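Q: I'm writing up a methods section and want to include an example of the input and output format. Could you take the sequence below and give the corresponding predicted structure tokens, formatted cleanly so I can copy it straight into the document?
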Amino acid sequence: MGQLAKTLLSGAALLVVVAPAARAADLPVQKAVPIEYVRVCSASGAGFFYIPGTDTCLRVSGRARFEAGYIPVNNRNNSSGDLSQYRGLMRMNFDARTQTGYGTLRAFLRLEAASRTGVFMASGTQQRIGNAFPAVGQDQLGRVQNFIIPEKAFVQFAGLTAGRASSFFDFYAHDYELIGSTAGSNVSSTNLLAYTQKFGENWSATLSMEDPNYRKNPFYAASFSAPAAGPGQAGVNNVFNTAPSPVILGTNADGTANTVVFLDTVQRSRMPDFVGALRYDAPWGSMQLSAAVKDVNIGGFIANSAVSTLTPTGGAATGPVTPGTAAALLAARGLNSGAQTEYGWAVQGGLKLNLPWIAPGDGLYLQGAYGEGALIYTGFSIFTGTYASQLGPVQGAPFVHALADAVVNPLTGRIALSQSFTASASYLHYWAPEWRSAFFGSYGEVSFPRGTREAFSLVNGIIGASAPPRGAAFGFSPILRDNYQIIAGTSLIWSPVKDLDIGIEGTYIGTGPLSGRITDQTRPVTIGGLPAYAEKRYDTTQIRMRVQRDF
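A: Here is the clean output for your methods example:
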């Protein structure tokens, strides 16, 4: 090929390369979108990263858990024969933090969901408060239960905490336990608005306004079949969809009631609970003094609810009493309005000691509480269950616990607050970095003002078994009985790798009346009107194992 031909070919090739580039130079230049990699946010702690495009740090964490339990039950009647329980649980946490000129702005979310089975694992407490829903099958009702709840959802900013969070009254809150059995306050989810002020060396003080509905244990109330309505009166049977409690209007010669009217003891949400806490945190541990005040209230008299066991001529009969007659009898007793409010209160002191000189990670909690009309604050019923005025301590137990915050005395027509106290201790010990055990126990009592049971026995002839019977059988009735509860337990947990726990825990539960005996409801045999079987104590045990992974 000649030199001329080579030159022409080279020129053509150059045009092929340069011409498109020249044309492209006439078009607008588009810059590549920069890739923004996730950046670690070490200032907020381990696991936090910046949300791309923002100055907010986020940590995502969670939990997966399996549990199985076993509790012996002697009673095989009335579907009370379950021995085993199971639960699978998931948890997701989202912790978002942004640094501002006022300090850290934080939002924390926690979502929990679980499926649990077995009479004891399925929680009547959570169902009563609307945190769970049950299965309805013949073999599943009361045994299979599921839930999904916003366990936490709060904002923190410049000392303010607002949203769904743990009560600021709580201190120990079963920190070392698997089951959470010991007596003591532990309300992990409530709606609140609080302000915390830090001052001095390691001191802080909090004032919290908290949702009252999570701290109301019901009044003890009567449950009975009301008599049919008389001519021209509303159906009395239809008005007892409330919680009726009797007030005596008239008595027989022996002092027993022959005429009563009923108060509506369903508590209204009238004012928030107010909680204050003074706390000290130091390297050696922490301590806290908490106090709370709450209203304990009832509605008015239930319309057309007055009933009598006497006819106008004094003969034995059952029938309604006209509103005018009831009003006159109430006025004679000095009771013009049934609506009342009393104020319950509770105080709690807690101490935590870090004990690294025994073993790294060791710790000891000591806690005590006393309250009036505030059973959930003292946490007496944490194992037995809450949001019920009386419950059996465990399924198949021979008697029930009286757990009411208050009761209306039938003689005075006034609110009488229960008194309760609890004391607990819990020690965590590391045998080795991967092996640890907790040893825990508590004691608690609940009692009612003197004479309350005796006053309630006066209405037994009208409301029946909802009141203690008169005579010798009075001493065997569980109704409004002062009682106690002892909890003791221990655990062994193996953590072969970080954030994995495989553990087992055993618990002893002892409960009974403070004095005397109670009829064994699982063996309802009577001799001469008195129970053939009566118990002064009930003892049982529970064992539960857990496999849990946190991330």
